[in-house]
Amino acid sequence: MGAMSQRHLTILTGASRGMGLAMAQQLLAAGHDLLCIARHTNDALAAEAKQAGRQCEQWPHDLARADGAATRLDTWLQARDQRELASVTLINNAGLIPRIAPLDDIPVDQLKDAMRVDLEAPLLLTSAFLRATAAWKVPRKVLNISSGLGRRAMAAQAAYCAAKAGMDHFTRCVALEQAALPNGARIVSLAPGVIDTDMQVQLRGADAALFPDRGNFVGLKEKGALASPEEAAARARLPAAPRLRQQSGGGRARLRRERSRWLIGQENAEDAKVTQRTQRRHSKWFSLRPLRHLCALCVLLASSPARLHRRKRAERAEETFKRVFSASSA
């Protein structure tokens, strides 16, 4: 099948409104086919897809019960012919904030639903996505929409902060796992900034006595500092930024600082390769000609400015080595 007939496929959660809807619209305009998973379908989005000549399948599903959606996604992907696709991407965008209050003042059912939508659903869907596409040769990507609250604490936001921090960290873990595979997926976690959505309305409408930071969110709205869903959606397509290993020296450090403001995950995979090479070199260094290397280390330590202290350290190191070496030679 020729490249002209291949399509980009994107699976997107929370696509019925807000930033998710804006992403869906931009992806359709860019020529992507969509599978959208949300509590409600969006007729206008379906009409846009039809007008653009794109496929847009919508599954109405409550992601507080994500196991059913994950199982269905696994089956759906395995039935696809990868030869028809140029790439496949999963975007975990759906989010939920429970009652804005101290942790002990939030109903248990709301806490459970928030953790399931914000953390359990991305985990289950990512697992199903990676498992179903493991043998695919086309580029595979996972984008997790996180939040700055996953990287800093805020009173009355314990559940949301914990879920987004968990999302960031499982993204790091999976990035390391996929980096070890021949055609591993690229996975990142993106904090797109403060966005003018229904979630912001919920934060501004909270009880100030229960939510100390309410005034900050009111101020952001009054100052016009909130990004529109369309602006945030465009920003969410930035994970094609240059890889860290393509940089060197100060350029690499600057890129790391810039990426760390909004992107987590793939840099861990890049760094893992460097770490693995370093570990192999260190292992080889200590396994080959250990006596010569350790003696050289002892001389180096003994000749430093803090001579007496380091000499004692060197002597202890040498004694330890002799015990190990004599035991291994016996």
Ordered list of secondary-structure elements with their pairings:
Blueprint: E1 7-13, H1 18-29, E2 32-38, H2 43-52, E3 56-60, H3 66-78, E4 85-92, H4 108-132, E5 140-145, H5 158-179, E6 186-190, H6 198-204, H7 214-222, H8 229-235, H9 249-260, E7 263-264, H10 266-287, H11 290-302, H12 307-329
Parallel strand pairs: 1-2, 1-4, 2-3, 4-5, 5-6
Antiparallel strand pairs: 6-7
Description:
By secondary structure, the chain is α/β, with parallel strands linked by helices. The protein folds into two domains: 3-277, Rossmann fold; 289-329. Helix content is 53%, strand content 12%. It is built from twelve helices and seven strands. The chain has helices spanning 18-29, 43-52, 66-78, 108-132, 158-179, 198-204, 214-222, 229-235, 249-260, 266-287, 290-302, 307-329; strands spanning 7-13, 32-38, 56-60, 85-92, 140-145, 186-190, 263-264. Strands 3-2-1-4-5-6-7 form a seven-stranded mixed sheet, sandwiched between helices. Strand 2, helix 2 and strand 3 (56-60) form a beta-alpha-beta unit. Helix 4 packs parallel to helix 5 (158-179) and helix 5 (158-179) packs across helix 10 (266-287). The longest helix has 25 residues, at 108-132. It is globular, with a radius of gyration of 25 Å. The N and C termini lie far apart (66 Å). Residues 238-252, 254-261, 281-289 and 324-330 have low confidence and may be disordered.
